[in-house]
Amino acid sequence: MRFAAIGDSFTEGVGDPLADGTMRGWADLVAAGLAGAGRDVHYANLAIRGRLLETIATEQCDAALALDPPPDVLTFNGGGNDMMRPGWDPARVEDLVSRVVDLAGQAGVRLVLLSGPDPTARLPRGRVFARRADDLMEICTRLAQPPHVSFVDNYSDGEMRHGAYWSADRLHLNPLGHARVAARMLDHLGVPTVLPDRGDLAEPPRSVAGEAAYMGRYVLPWLGRRVTRRSSGDGRPPKAPAWVAVSAA
């Protein structure tokens, strides 16, 4: 199986660091799970943190479909960064998602749309994010038409709204969250996988001092990048832009 992934920080694996500081994440875990199930797996991951939907649906999509040989399965996630910026346009979002759907169909590639889980309960302006996420979920649900397109809806997984699945920035999944998304994706691809859960882990406590520290460490730097029109992914290449063989180990 040739498995390729396009997207932003969610698909790059931010929040699931390895010992050397590189990011693993759900897509790497899916590739390893497919190999562990006896598949001969080659994997490419073109996702880059901070990328907007237009870049994912054009540059990354075109690069993924131009791989030689082409993917058997392509996963596509995006839109989270767009939701946090002004100018949200559902019609434009639908055009971009439709572009990926159409091109994958023309190339004979199985496309899996997937959503990230719901972080809105702990985010500033979370209600605005939630309304825009509802737009995206409706678009993906409508465009996921068999046989070549399907949709894995992590956004509706109520379990992953719990703080035990999230990194300290409240925006990216931690290793447990990435493992749960990987298990849901592997099940979707026909590899039965035990679904990780938080057990008896409690919701991380909040305090006034903790909220102030959170704003200073994560929210203010994010606002600074918006003012200066910078992205966390500026200058960062994709971690696997060409096919790499995946070991069953």
Report on the structure:
By secondary structure, the protein is α/β, with parallel strands linked by helices. It has one domain (2-245): SGNH hydrolase (Rossmann fold). Helix content is 41%, strand content 12%. It contains eight helices and six strands, in the order E-H-H-E-H-E-H-H-E-H-E-H-H-E. It has helices spanning 9-12, 26-36, 53-65, 80-83, 90-107, 126-143, 175-188, 208-227, and strands at 2-6, 42-45, 73-76, 110-115, 149-153, 240-245. Helix 6 links the parallel strand 4 (110-115) and strand 5. Helix 2 (26-36) packs across helix 7 (175-188) and helix 5 packs parallel to helix 6 (126-143). The radius of gyration is 17 Å and the shape is globular. The mean pLDDT is 91.
Structural class: alpha/beta
Which percent range fits the helix content? Answer: 40-55%
CATH class equals Alpha Beta
User: What is the terminal separation in angstroms?
Assistant: 16 Å
Shape: globular
Mean pLDDT: 91
- What radius of gyration results from the CA coordinates? 17 Å
Which homologous superfamily in CATH is the superfamily? SGNH hydrolase
Unreliable runs: none
Q: The biggest beta sheet, please?
A: 6 strands, mixed
What is the annotated CATH architecture? 3-Layer(aba) Sandwich
* Widest sheet: strand ordering: 5-4-3-1-2-6
Would you tell me which CATH topology applies? Rossmann fold
Number of helices: 8
In short:
By secondary structure, the chain is of the alpha/beta class. Helices cover 41% and strands 12% of the residues. The chain has a 6-stranded mixed sheet, with helices on both faces.
